[in-house]
Design a protein that fits this description.
Elements: H1 3-14, E1 18-22, H2 40-51, E2 57-60, H3 63-66, H4 70-82, E3 90-95, H5 99-112, E4 117-120, H6 130-133, E5 140-146, H7 153-156, H8 165-173, E6 181-186, H9 191-200, E7 206-208, H10 218-224, E8 233-236, H11 238-241, H12 249-270
Parallel strand pairs: 1-2, 1-8, 3-4, 4-5, 5-6, 6-7, 7-8
Helix pairs in contact: 2-4, 2-12, 9-10
Length: 271
């Protein structure tokens, strides 16, 4: 089964384009989680158990686990193993290095841990991509095209005019000979650029951050996110997993995830 087939199946099963970012921050963990000696895995398990029927993917960000040291990496590995097999796992690490280093990342994340997709910084060019999904037809990467942060335009250029780094990434990477899927990170905080990115890459899956705490445009994400095969992966983290700081944090996360999924589905019907 290819990545897109797995994603499409999860989207259909749960009627969802929602992805939850599993990003544990020490200062924001709820009271209940802080009662555990090593809170990361129990916290993540509670979130996953409460939301697994509402999502199309989970996206742990590596940085939030590195801050916990070795215990964090162990918790991340066990979190990946705990996520139900039919739900895609995307590791958000934005790696981007020369070939042999990328090959090492791929061996660890895609082969050993068995995750389905990884975010990649394409600044070094094709060498950041080919070692990852060159011969892994069942895996995917999401190249940073237009990130959701406010200063993204400093180096990424103007995607509306199809000038600059973002446009070059989308334009050139589609011609690279790889067997796995190459998708793109396109932030919902730049809604006018989502339609341009879609017109430039009609077959590519989009990972769309910026919904929730960053205030991105959900309507634009739903309208311009779908590709020819599957819906987009619309990601929310803080607005879901920190919906409550109390002992009801898992139930609150479920409620927030359900509300966001329903908002997405209402927009899907309207477009």
């Amino acid at each position: 089964m290819t990545y897109l087939q797995k994603l499409e199946a999860a989207q259909e099963k749960n009627n969802s384009w929602l992805c939850i970012g599993l990003d544990p921050q020490p200062e924001r963990l709820p009271i209940q989680a802080l009662k555990w000696d090593e809170p990361l895995l129990p916290f993540n398990r509670a979130i996953i158990e409460a939301t697994a029927d509402l999502v199309c993917a989970y996206k742990p960000n590596l940085g939030f686990y590195l801050q916990w040291g070795a215990a964090g990496i162990i918790a991340l590995e066990r979190t990946v193993a705990f996520i139900p097999d039919h739900i895609p796992v995307i590791i958000d690490c934005k790696i981007g290095d020369i070939g042999h280093t990328q090959a090492a990342w791929a061996a660890g994340l895609l082969d050993l841990w068995g995750v389905d997709a990884v975010t990649v910084n394409p600044f070094v060019g094709q060498e950041a991509v080919s070692p990852m999904v060159g011969d892994r037809s069942d895996k995917a990467i999401y190249l940073l095209a237009r990130t959701s942060n406010p200063s993204a335009t400093q180096f990424q250029g103007d995607l509306v005019s199809r000038q600059g780094l973002s446009a070059d990434v989308i334009r050139q990477s589609q011609d690279w000979p790889v067997q796995g899927h190459v998708g793109y990170v396109v932030g919902a905080t730049f809604p006018e650029e989502l339609s341009v990115a879609r017109s430039m890459a009609p077959q590519a899956n989009f990972l769309i951050p910026g919904i929730g705490a960053q205030g991105g445009n959900l309507e634009a994400a739903v309208r311009h996110g779908p590709d020819a095969t599957a819906g987009p992966v619309i990601s929310a983290s803080r607005s879901v997993i920190y919906a409550s700081a109390g002992e009801d944090f898992a139930l609150a996360a479920r409620s927030a995830a359900s509300d966001l999924r329903d908002r997405i589905n209402k927009l899907r019907k309207a477009t």
